[in-house]
TrEMBL record:
Protein name, per record: Endosome-associated-trafficking regulator 1
Coiled-coil region list: 19-99
Gene Ontology biological process terms from the UniProt entry: positive regulation of cilium assembly; positive regulation of protein localization to cilium; regulation of cytokinesis
Keywords recorded for this protein, A-Z: Coiled coil
Keyword Coiled coil: yes
Gene of this entry: Sdccag3
The family this protein is said to belong to: Belongs to the ENTR1 family.
UniProt entry tagged with the keyword S-adenosyl-L-methionine: no
GO-annotated cellular components: centrosome; ciliary basal body; early endosome; midbody; recycling endosome
Length: 159
């Protein structure tokens, strides 16, 4: 009975040591779980901040694109008006050439109109390039937002 008692005490002692070891492991795992939760929350906050920043940039780019579109529209209208004026000046120039009256003045007017038209055309092209660049930036932001959504979906599925 004493031997059996000693054996049982030995087993109890080993079980207590095992229990303490497992309790230590449990505490470590709980601590690690808490650290992971904190880390995950921070990553979620960082991701949310990044999404908000991207959304702000997207709004800003959208405003710029709208402004550029309006500018392009105005420049196109001005370009069309100047082309009509150029045609009128050319017609006037031809009429003056036929009549041999005021040839120098008509040429000067046509040259001025042509120079103005070339400046507006150059400016219009630059604005159109700027608009296209803004559209490419918007596409890049949209792709980034799509990838963020996918990351969020994968993260939610993994939980």
């Amino acid at each position: 009975l004493k031997e059996e008692n000693a054996t049982l005490r030995s087993k109890i002692s080993r079980l207590q040591i095992l229990s303490e070891t497992q309790a230590d492991k449990m505490r470590k795992l709980e601590k690690k779980l808490e650290e992971n939760k904190i880390k995950e929350e921070k990553e979620a906050q960082d991701l949310e901040a990044m999404v908000q920043h991207v959304e702000q940039n997207l709004q800003l780019m959208t405003k710029r694109a709208v402004k550029a579109e309006n500018s392009v529209s105005k420049l196109r209208q001005e370009n069309a008006l100047l082309q009509v004026q150029l045609k009128n000046y050319k017609a006037e120039n031809e009429a003056l050439q036929l009549g041999q009256a005021g040839l120098a003045a008509a040429k000067q007017n046509a040259e001025l109109a042509l120079q103005h038209l070339l400046r507006v055309t150059t400016s219009s092209r630059a604005s159109i390039r700027q608009l296209l660049s803004g559209a490419e930036s918007l596409q890049l932001v949209a792709d980034l937002l799509k990838s963020i959504d996918r990351i969020s979906e994968v993260s939610e599925d993994g939980q």
